[in-house]
Octanoyltransferase LipM
Amino acid sequence: MGKEVWNFIDSGFCSPYFNMALDEALLDWHSEGKIAPTIRFYGWNPATLSIGYFQKAEKEIDFEAVKNHQLGFVRRPTGGRGVLHEHELTYSVIVSEEHPDMPKTVTEAYRVISEGILKGFQSLGLEAYFAVPRTEEERNGLKNPRSSVCFDAPSWYELVVEGRKVAGSAQTRQKGVILQHGSILLDLDEDKLFSLFKYPNERVKERMKRSFKNKAVAINEISPQKVTYEDAKIAFKQGFQEGLNIELRPYELSEMQVAYVNELAKNRYQSDEWNFKR
């Protein structure tokens, strides 16, 4: 038997609103049986701070800093914490909860989907492995994160190299479909990242920044050779095909589909009502 064929969309660099709207539209179309399971790669123009669905924007984010750095800002439909999307490859996976290879629990589905990311890191020559919180303290930290910053600690089955997190992912399940998307860090400007959040005082901010250095790392800090966005696309496309045992075929959006996504981007993800609702 041949491998199952999934769609592959390479969106290039899009606005934050279009990026989130397209992920949502793909979930809808897959739930309606209009498209096959899909993997999508994309970048951000402009570089953007995204926050998780449940985060309190006004309380946690320094919007003056967001503006000064000329960043976009958007709330994701998925959970998790703040992510600076700048020097990274972003991926999304859209697949039915009923797919025979998808476990019922969120954490186990993470493990299956993240197998593709693991293989991608390995093809870049990096010894990545899955994070599994071992102690009670680590597990409690996932339930009650001390930091608003996503890469501050690995969750279940996120990818780690040399003990530090290299990819952060978030998942939602709606209409019988799993949407998992995440960031694969190529480079990271830590000063910029930490300037975007509010802290009780400067001392707390510096302490968290120091701690963060031990917990997260970008590919180009540890890779023997520089990895470009194009290199990452090749490696992780191959990784997903191998890790999920699928064949990826290019999928082009129709004009009607693009118009639908633009409409959703404008009406939902660009609106203050969505982005500042908590």
In short: The first strand starts at residue 4 and ends at 14. The first helix runs from residue 16 to 31.
